[in-house]
Amino acid sequence: MKYGIHLNQEKAEFPALWQAHFIDYDALKGFLKTQMVDANVRLSTAFPSTHVFHWTPATPDEPDFGQLLAQRLALVSRLTPEFVAMLDKEVEKFNQFFVTIKAEIKSRIAHVLDTSRMARVAECEAALSDLLLLERFVFLNFTAVAKALKKHDKWSGLQIREPYLMRTSQLSFVVSTSLLQLKPELMGRLTDMLAEQNVSLSTLALPANGVMRATEALKDMAVAPPSEPPVSLKHAVLGNNAASPKLGPLVGLLHETQTVMISLRGPHGTDIIGGVLRCLSTHNCQIVDFSLSRLHHDVTFGVLVHLHNRDVDLFSDLAKTAQKWDGTLSFDVQDARLKASKLTDSAQFALSEAPYAKRVKYIATVLNERGLTPEFLSEWLAWLLYKKISVEQMRRLDSHTTLMCVEFRLSVPDELSPDEMKSELIAISTAHQTDVALQADNVFRRQKRLVVFDMDSTLIQQEVIDEIARITGIEAQVAEITERAMQGELDFKESLASRVALLKGTPVQALEDVKRILTFTDGAHYLCRALKSAGFKLAVISGGFLPLAKYVKAELGLDYAFANQLKVSADGTSLTGETVGPIVDATRKAELLEVIAQAEGIAIDQVVAVGDGANDLLMLGKASLGIAFNAKPRVQQQARARINQKSLANILYLMGYSESEAAELQLL
């Protein structure tokens, strides 16, 4: 709802005399809208986004840049003082009325609080109701002033809101604290009077910031603060008589709060945070939520508060704090009657969340070891906009001189298909040679406990059977079968049997020779050290051969190693060309992953699997996070995530670890 409409609706509920002294918000807005339209000196926003500023005028009638600026400066230098004079007149009208009404209400309250006479409940109710009405009158008008100034600053390009509000801090409606001090005493008196007349308050909830006297008097009555204002008193019983009809609306006024969004940006980080919090503490605000972002020394601190007592002096104090710390202050006041916290479908949202219903949270990790290019980031953000996906948070994970990895927290419309999104992201990733991993943002994302690796072309750079074949001179025949198997063109068991048969007669010593030439993938040791330090269980499950898998296990400090067992001759000197025991194929890999998880008491939602070939697909699908590492095209299409970078250490980014956190784990 537009504030002007809301203000007029609220204004209609006041007595006619009060209505005549409201700020004329519509007139102020009308002046700005009709007069300031061509006066904005902030040229970047004064013209449409498609406008081009030329070095020389495009037509004879078009003013040059200096003339354009001079015209607008002349306009704004004339119109802004006119607006300020107009606003001053409105503020003085409202402030003078406040002074008059305040004197009348103070006199009435003093009469009620006079202990030399017996005040009636109705008198106390009326005094308190008038006091609360005056508070509401002040806050509605002060908000109108603040919003009119905000519109002026937007349409003129000048920034006068903060200094103007600082001026108002000297006026009576801001500095008058005597009424605020009287309210607790008045509420306490009303509570005592009701208690004396045996009021049953089982259905009454007083304000959470209520008066100590009232709290003490009613502590045995099980009075609880409300979750939603107001609670009507229509069911309360006053002796044998019905409760005063004024009490229901009165309690509603007592419970009303203002929701205020405050943001202070500036170069003094902790001072800015402390300054805002001191203001909130001084004015008894309830902090609902906060958000903080930092760019080196510059900090933006945002806080959502509930303001009780309509204490408008808060805003002048905030303006002084902004001035003290060279900050830029912005705030937005939303009346509780506007239900500012009820944004959609009665759902409430944190400040860090996009306030839209029917959304699912995802984490997207974008990664390129050579650096994230502006071209990629532009296309990535364009895709997000096209899909109506909101960015809630961004966190840089790497510490390189060039931006390499960023984690995005996304709010995704729940009707979007994960498979469709993955398919489109693969196309963007491929075009820019940049990885995008999309994961559901849930409690298990950073609570993984088991990582299972393939060995060949994953933990190590070679295929071990090819290395054995190279030593024995049958490299070409074995390599052909291996490649067809990895592409999924051959049944794995048949291809393995064919390749192993070619190794018949190979000396067992060849396995030892292969160990000496194995090359571990970049980042393998770094990754495994970090994960072990973080308490992970690690396993290698390979379609290769057990002696080499055990060697890799020992070198990397893994907990488990499973692979195919080669049969050797009776004298133990050569291979027979056969295997012993179950074949570790795709199905067996997935089974072993589950067996290890069960043995360690780890949920599948806490398991990560990493592989590159077709025989890894079932294992990758079984784990909650399956990563295709420099994998074959078919595997990349089907895996939940993919990494096409040199280092295995990049897996830590997908698991939510920053580079500095990973480095710290190396030291344990």
TrEMBL record:
Swiss-Prot/TrEMBL keywords: Hydrolase
Origin superkingdom: Eukaryota
EC number, as in UniProt: 3.1.3.3
Protein name: Phosphoserine phosphatase
UniProt gene name: SER2_1
